[in-house]
Specification:
The structure is a homodimer of 560-residue chains. The first copy, chain A, is built from 22 helices and 20 strands. With 560 residues, the first copy, chain A, is α/β, with parallel strands linked by helices. A seven-stranded mixed sheet of chain A has the order 12-13-14-15-16-17-19, with helices on both faces. In chain A, strands 1-2-4-7-9-11 form a six-stranded mixed sheet, sandwiched between helices. In chain A, a hairpin with a 2-residue loop joins strand 12 (261-263) and strand 13 (266-269). The longest helix of chain A has 24 residues, at 108-131. Chains A and B meet through helix 3, helix 5, helix 6, helix 7 and helix 18 of A and helix 3, helix 5, helix 6, helix 7 and helix 18 of B.
């Protein structure tokens, strides 16, 4: 089926983000001691939608889903892997970037979400390199063009084969009238720190740059003659692997296929249930507390594997967010709820916090962090409703600070006691936003007193009044107002322009410092979204539509 | 005349940015010792274009041009002014923000440029408060809505009259489906540090917030009962004025009307000439060196007034950039050239650098800084061509680092000696970009060796090879290639999509740290530009078009 046109309530292309190496069509993983190699050999006959072929190792969201899965598996299933080489299985072409026919025929919505997911995967590659001791290297055994070079930029070391042909390039501006928007421009000047005028030249030269000039301009780190390429890549990978703090002789945990039961209006995972309200255009994500006590030691954690509650919850939440983003664009508001015994969560938090040096706990914490970041950048309104029987404790309490607004019942609705929330140490350091701050630091930016007060409340069960006073929730309606207030809130939100809300939320969520990640999501993506709307790129005579037809795009020459 | 439709080569609405208090229709300035008051009383019958009335102290670019002029005059003409109160001449309404009919009937291009200019003026207000000892206060004697509140946010202290009605509000999202995009969202969370969930509430409440809640949420600093308002504003202004380091008993310098001679393809100012090439769609800005030696002392500087070369050049460049931006949108490339005796400039630079504590020199340096920032955020390609007879020295050399690329002739074209460039101390601290770094620091980010090397070259005349080696220019073609290379460069640039270039340039120019200013221009503006393109706002059934007609906008509900 074709990728849907704009504004389909439910796109015909329904994506499943669950996959496994045996099902990969485009990537393969090989592991040789401390070095893993990810080989991209895109099957051009297996695009995610109809209407294009994935020639020259170009990619679409289907290729990206496999890459994301591979990056996750290397982290969890392969504690022994300390360096990851990304290379191509196609001679002379590392990767040609995002498939242009796919971009030309996609809806604006699909293009934007595709770019966001691709950016997130690249950030997860950098996260592995910087925080997991699993450092990525790009072995460019052929040309890396456009998104292909952007993928290479997400690694820490770029080696380019010296065969007289292979080059790195970002030809989007001259060829397609769009930006190298999956991190490219930002990584060129802010990560590689390429001088801005040289970056300007590089981004307008279709054929790219190679050899010593590519090194001088900081675009790559090394060129290697064809005859020595494989050996030099292995040598470099082993050298980098030797610096890693990944463990020796520990078993990994297998990322079993995520269980998911799906009906028209409900998706059920272990510990997470998503209810879709198509009439009111919202979705409720309810996260359940663990059903048993936290394990006593790391051996038990290891044995539980993907059933270990924090990991199970995170996998489900990750999948739910991606599903909602791509498959349910009409549901404009996400409501987070929780249920169950919060005191159990505190014990899990203590286990996580007390074992941050353990490789597996580190991976789990980083995965929670990445998944919560996906919520931060989601282009939906996010609310949290704190009801009786809920368990916004520690890790789950962080969701109160991730959402746009939180509402907590002040009192009781039935015989159950009024809800409480509880902070743990996890809210004060382990889970950072893209801006490098915790969600509480961002919430209380410029208000260190409130941050200090919140710290003093760690471990206390706070009722609605106490939470309101501490600035931890937005509103605390009482039992009489509760139902009406939430109903009006959801109705009001659904009445606003989705575009204006997306822009507003993106600007209010990230106070404070900027990082590579916030620049990519806040600046580069916003510009790309703008350009994706412009006739010069996406119109019937735009460059994206006409590429490959032999016709030249006709541009409106006015500068804006 | 109406504001032009998209893509007019030359908009029918030609703006003149030169004005003076005697010609103001919307603002008045009154000065009482150390406190000046800027009173906004918009003449609703005097819009900049036809088709709308400026009711309720709403503004358009004509109102903004006067405000910009007033801010400039207070700085230069009134050294005695240490606090500036912005207030309204209309009872019960401080300012209703940008005129909605104007936005609804404007082209995308005009909306974007109008927002940019408005943002720059607000940044210049903050610049005066933070660096000039002329601190702005908002005396909100009525409601400040939308852009009206955004204007207030540009001041350092917000006082709201407590009359039971007056409120502050940002109703753009619910009413108009656009963002509070002239700095509003960014200033709310990053300057005022309003908690993000409260900011979310505030930006969706049409009627706004007032009273103690507005203080508690950090939206304002103080409320004052009507009976005490005037007295309290004066008291506060005098209190703030007392902290200023502005001089006592010094005369100001009069900002005489800027001389400008304009023909179809040329604009001539003192020391600046602009040549418009409509066929090749570019403009050349040639800046001339001083014609006499730098004055010996501050008294002479004062006497020269607006004829003092650095000030004269800056005023002309400022006007030229604004003129090109609004009145000549089809000219996509700006070429900077210089001519004259560069050694004279070095003497001026020494005079500026040696008198940074003098209030007037400080103003001139800050004005150069603001004007060069206008070049940084211009949505045109910028090149510098260094030819024989040029004088890229010090202050003018900084333009080499402001542009996207620079080309310097290596050798001679005629009998004249090959060109040289020269750095001065001014390139290493006095002129900061919006990111808080000098242009050389940004250029050499992550390459401190090159920055250090450049410092060692201060005062030396560098030929093309030396400049190239030091990384100070992009390319150094020789005399044989020079003409062809520049011709091809301009042709190539003119062949690219203007939108893609604008997005690319905006992402490559600001490596390094982010500030309030870069967030406003890079993030908020990019989102607003996107929203200005979306049918939900700007379409025939969009909120911006239908506002005031009684019809409700119909939104496409899909989130992107």
């Amino acid at each position: 089926m074709h990728i849907e046109s704009e504004s389909a309530d439910k796109p015909a292309l329904q994506l499943d983000f669950r996959t496994a190496p045996d099902d990969y069509r485009h990537w393969s993983i090989s592991v040789d001691g401390p070095v893993a190699t990810l080989i991209m050999a895109v099957d051009e006959k297996s695009p995610a939608a109809e209407g294009y072929e994935l020639k020259l190792n170009s990619y679409d969201v289907g290729v990206d889903i496999e890459l994301y899965d591979a990056v996750q598996r290397l982290r969890f299933e392969h504690p022994e892997v300390r360096a990851v080489v990304i290379t191509s299985g196609i001679d002379g072409m590392f990767c040609a970037g995002a498939n242009i026919r796919m971009l030309g025929t996609s809806s604006h919505s699909h293009k934007v979400n595709f770019c966001k997911f691709t950016n997130e995967t690249r950030n997860s590659i950098e996260d592995a390199s910087h925080h997991s001791g699993q450092v990525y290297i790009a072995a460019l055994n052929g040309t890396a063009a456009g998104g292909g070079y952007e993928l290479a930029l997400a690694t820490e070391y770029l080696m380019l084969i010296d065969d007289g042909n292979a080059a790195v390039s970002l030809p989007e501006v001259p060829l397609l009238a769009v930006l190298p928007g999956t991190g490219g421009l930002t990584r060129v000047v802010d990560k590689r720190m390429v001088r801005r005028d040289l970056a300007d030249v590089f981004c307008t030269v279709e054929e790219g740059v190679k050899g010593q000039r590519a090194i001088d301009w900081r675009l790559i780190d090394e060129t290697v003659p064809r005859s020595k390429f494989a050996a030099r890549v292995t040598e470099k990978a082993r050298e980098i692997a030797a610096e890693s703090d990944r463990p020796e002789g520990e078993p990994g945990i297998k990322l079993e296929r995520l269980e998911r039961a799906q009906t028209e209006n409900e998706i059920r995972y272990p510990f997470v249930a998503v209810t879709l309200n198509r009439v009111e255009r919202n979705a409720t994500i309810e996260i359940q507390a663990p059903e048993s006590d936290a394990p006593d030691d790391m051996r038990s954690v290891q044995e539980q594997g993907v059933d270990f509650w924090p990991l199970a919850v995170t996998r489900a939440l990750d999948d739910a967010l991606l599903h909602l983003r791509f498959n349910e664009p009409a549901l404009g508001t996400l409501i987070i709820k929780t249920s169950g015994d919060g005191s159990r969560i505190a014990a899990y938090d203590a286990l996580l916090g007390g074992n941050q040096d353990n490789w597996l706990i580190r991976e789990i914490l980083l995965y929670i962090q990445r998944t919560f970041k996906r919520l931060d950048v989601t282009s939906r309104t996010t609310f949290a409703f704190v009801e009786p029987g809920s368990c916004f404790v520690g890790m789950l309490a962080d969701l109160l600070f991730a959402v746009d607004r939180s509402y907590m019942l002040d009192g009781q609705l039935d015989q159950r006691p009024g809800p409480t929330i509880r902070l743990t140490n996890l809210n004060f350091g382990a889970l950072l936003m893209a801006n490098g701050l915790t969600r509480l630091e961002t919430r209380f930016i410029g208000d260190s007193d409130s941050l200090e007060t919140a710290k003093q409340l760690i471990g206390q069960d706070l009722d609605a009044q106490a939470a309101l006073e501490a600035g931890l929730i937005t509103y605390a309606p009482d039992d009489i107002d509760w139902e009406d207030e939430l109903r009006l809130l959801l109705e009001e939100r659904a009445s606003f322009s989705p575009d204006a809300l997306t822009g507003m939320e993106a600007n209010l969520r990230f106070a404070g410092p900027e990082t590579l990640e916030t620049k990519i999501f806040g600046r580069l993506s916003a510009w790309q979204n703008w350009i994706f709307q412009r006739p010069n790129a996406a119109g019937e005579s735009g460059a994206l539509k006409l590429y490959g037809t032999g016709k030249r795009a006709k541009y409106d020459r006015g500068r804006v």
